[in-house]
Amino acid sequence: MLKWCEQWPERRFAVEGAGGLGRTLAQQLAAAGEDVVDVPSTLSARARLLAAGGDRKTDPADALHVAQVALFRTDLRKVTAEDQSTILRLLTEWHDDLTSERVRIVNRLHALLRDPLPGGAPNRLSPDKAAALMKGIRPVTATDNRRRDIARDLLADLRRIDRQIRDNETQMRDALAASRTTLTALPGLGIVLAAMVLGHIGDISRFPTEHHFASYTGSAPLDASSGNNSRHRLNTGGNRALNSVLDIIAVCQIRGGGRGQDYYRRKVAEGKTPAEARRALKRRLSNVVYRTMKRDQRDSTGRGRRRSDHASQRGLHGIDQRIAFGPRVPGQAEFDVRQAGQGVRVVARHGRFEIPGQHRRNAEPGPHRGEHTDETVALERHPPAAVGTFQPFQHRRTPCARAREQHHG
């Protein structure tokens, strides 16, 4: 197939269900360096319904609809070769299976020990507690003997499950250390939840902003406005596993104190119900998780520099465009960003000088409150340096401007 596709140098493979039945094919293509995207079956089904003869379903028609979705949707998940996030997802899924099996075994033990023990077994039954209780059982009938034998088998299974869970968590801890994540530093986010977050998200760069990430996790409310009525409703979609993780973190922070608890109490004081306040906290926690993962990604790839460095990497050099900061109002600045030698020159057309948002924190003190000067504001960047020059008018400098020039030399 790859040889047949060589006639199209620029190509993209769209695989429906790349995380399910199409996983093997998608992984083989990704390992070969191909551009592969995952098309959810819900989107291909919608494309089929909107097409002519939407009630017909054949393999060629399904392939056409999958290709149409991949052609017009730019936000599809890109399939990458298996990496550390794949290992973490396998470990978390196995951890879920083990914990579910443990719950079933404990429930069976409770049911078996209910008859021979007055009042039954206590809650939070551990292997040691179950073994101590079984030592006090004196079977009388053949049924009691059989019940005790089954309980012994279940106790052995419980010990085995606990041992597997400990080994699984050790493997998670090692995998998290290899990924160099700092998610575990967040209050309420342990190794299991951190592994679940990394395993489900994978590459955080596929989310352009924290708002896209919140929509994916289902923590962002849905807009349900109509006409002059502006309202929102609860989002029951998104990745429910990640939504559950955010809910657990929110509950832990509400109970444990700190900034999360303060935010929750402030929302309750504003008149929100406890459930609404917890959802608001989940939305904030979604932003925290996103920013933490973005910072970890920058650090791991050696791009943990200042914001001005990221601006130059995104291609400020060589562009020739006008940037307007907000709506055009009297007295507000307009800028031209043009290539000037090895740097970038920012020239104000009129009005007061304002530094672009991505550089404002890194800039040296410059003119404010509409003071027109010709001083140069140097942005903190690695060479080549970006310089913003303000020269809109030639007129008398104010005393504040002269004092600032003397201060900065």
From TrEMBL:
It holds the Pfam family Transposase_20. Residues 7-115 form the Transposase IS110-like N-terminal domain. InterPro entries: NAD(P)-bd_dom_sf (IPR036291), Transp_IS110-like_N (IPR002525), Transpos_IS110 (IPR047650), Transposase_20 (IPR003346). SUPFAM superfamilies: NAD(P)-binding Rossmann-fold domains (SSF51735). GO terms for biological process: DNA transposition. Residues 182-265 form the Transposase IS116/IS110/IS902 C-terminal domain. Residues 293-302, 309-320, 361-383 have a biased composition (Basic and acidic residues). NCBIfam families: transpos_IS110. This is Uncharacterized protein. It comes from Streptomyces violaceusniger.
